[in-house]
Amino acid sequence: MSEISIIILTFNSIKFVKSCLDSIFSQDRQNFETIVVDNGSNDGTTNFIKEKYPQVILIENKDNLGACKARNQGIEIARGKLVLTIDCDIVLERVFLSRIVEAIKIAPTYVGMIQPKILNFDKRTIYSCGIYLSWLRRFYDIGKGKFDNGQFDKPQYIFGACSAAALYRREMLEAIKEDIGYFDERFFFLVEDVDLAWRAQKKGWRTLYHPEAVCCHCGNSSSLNKSLRQFLCWRNRMFMLKKYRLNRFKLTVIYLFYDLPRLFVLFLSNAYVRNMVLNRNNGNIACYN
User: Fold this and answer.
1) Cα separations (Å) of 172 from 88, 111, 202, 206?
2) Which domain-ending residue is among 168, 195, 217?
3) From the CB of residue 251, how many other CB atoms can be counted at a distance below 10 Å?
4) Same domain? 209 vs 231
5) Among residues 65, 88, 138, 150, which is most buried (max CB within 10 A)?
6) Are residues 99 and 237 in the same domain?
7) Is the same domain home to 208 and 235?
8) What is the pLDDT along the chain (289 residues), one digit of tens a residue?
9) Domain CATH code at residue 66
10) Are 73 and 59 in contact, with CB atoms under 8 Å apart?
């Protein structure tokens, strides 16, 4: 049995997948299996993987089922006690697996997730050091866009792990699994890692940021247009707030000071939000495929 299962999502990812897979197969730790879940690529991604990387376990979806469904498909067949999710535009440093696996092995058993340091491809600025959730229930990537000057070099407990590159204990994933999957498939894409982290915390699991495990992220390999990404962030935040049933006073304050002003701006500027508010659709992403 493999020590770790690496799950990669692809969607028209031909220009990213070679660098990603090469960085995996050049790791100094080799006890892993690699699972690629493709969401209906039509640019030759799957044929390239079959030809160049026959050792990869490949799941081919006919359509774009979303990041949540695709990750769940990978987790369902994964055999490792540890699961690493990475986006197809992630490149791992050569000692990444050794460092992140050792980190979770020596961590307390209640640590269910390890967050690596994710740099942008310039290797100078931060993409994410994990998820921070504010009092207003706004979620941020810790350090995003800041120069990496060593200010994020200390291990610490954080709210949750960014699924662009995150290590999960299989035991934790099974403990928090819902009827709609390990990742809540209603989210389709975006905010699903915030939801998973929140569920894990409610079950007593913690997330540890481990800066010695480093990888690089190119960004938006999904090629999702800005308006649709903005809509999904807004819609999925609404899902999340409804799901966790905050007390009425706190929820009212959050809506008044953040969500209503934001909705006003988005209603005027974003057709996807406007269509949903006017009940032209129910927010299902299939409306936009």
Assistant:
1) 24, 9, 12, 10
2) 217
3) 16
4) no
5) 88
6) no
7) no
8) 679 999 999 999 999 999 999 999 999 998 999 999 999 999 999 999 999 999 999 999 999 999 999 999 999 999 999 999 999 999 999 999 999 999 999 999 999 999 999 999 999 999 999 999 888 888 999 999 999 999 999 999 999 999 999 999 999 999 999 999 999 999 999 999 999 999 999 999 999 999 999 999 986 655 667 888 889 999 998 888 888 777 788 888 888 888 899 999 999 988 889 888 887 655 565 444 4
9) 3.90.550.10
10) yes
Phi, psi for residue 88 in degrees, rounded to 5: -70, -15
Residues 191 and 248 in one domain: no
Range of the domain at 247: 226-288
Cβ count within 10 A of residue 204: 10
- 278, with CB counted inside 10 A (0-12, 13-18, 19+), is exposed
Look up residue 212 and give its two tokens: 């010695």
CA pair distance 101, 96, nearest whole angstrom: 8
The answer on 277 and 188 residing in a single domain is no
Which one, of 27, 140, 28, lies nearest residue 86 by Cα?
A: 27
For residues 206 and 231, membership in a common domain is answered with no
Q: How far apart are CA 200 and CA 160, in angstroms?
A: 9
**What total number of domains does the chain contain?**
2
> Quick one: tokens of 154?
């200390």
Residue 221: φ, ψ to 5°: -65, -15
Q: Is 55 helix (H, G, I), strand (E, B) or coil?
A: coil
Q: Are 135 and 88 found together in one domain? A: yes
* Single-letter amino acid code for the residue at 157: Y
